[in-house]
Amino acid sequence: MIDIYNPKALVELKGKSLSNSESRIRELYSASRSSNHKNFYKAVKLEAFCAIKERIGGIDDGGKYVCHPRMVKKTNCTLISLGLNNRVTFDQHIWNVTGGHCKLLGADKDPQHSETQKYYEKMNGELFVGMIPNELTVSSMMEKSGRKDVDILKMDIEKGEFGALEPFIREYSVCQILIEIHGTPAEHFKMLKIMARYHFRIFNVDPNPYCIKCSEYSLIHDNCMDQYGVVPLTPIIPRSEY
């Protein structure tokens, strides 16, 4: 465990991140051009250090790593969960751990069962139905619910992320993105570059053991690092190109 309040430890952490950064970038580019997903996941290095990462939603495929969720702002906070499939363990957990006062917005391509709807009613959440982004956009969810920004965005929408994410983060402020990317290493790299362009840094990589072409990535925006006690490291994903 690294003591983030120890200046010497922080200098060492940042120095280690900076060393060999050029070779790490070359390694990542090379891995993105191959068909070997495992090599690509290994080549993706962390760009931010979160001292308190918490697994939200359990240890199965539905769980996500969130940075210091108890540091979500205490008023007017917004949580978004895309891709429910009648599984609300993550939604219940994140709503409770952030204090039970954030506005929760959930969406899925199919109408959810009555039990799922009841869970959302108890959390004063709003459910939306539609294939994202063709039938439903994340921006329209924000507009209909009267929200202005997002504290935590969870996205698991089976390749819908390629069309849905960039228009949303171009328009709205988001602190943390928890996203499962589906596809080839080149497609993963493309999505990571898009998020980097909007100043998000990776603080966790978690390949899906049930899907070789899928991996979970947790990212935080530069503007939110102080709030969550995150230490910025050397960026590996290029920010100046697609």
UniProtKB/TrEMBL annotation:
InterPro entries listed in its UniProt record: FkbM_mtfrase, METTL24, SAM-dependent_MTases_sf
Pfam families tied to this protein: Methyltransf_21
Name of this chain's protein: Methyltransferase FkbM domain-containing protein
Occurrences of domain Methyltransferase FkbM (ranges): 49-202
Provenance organism: Caenorhabditis nigoni
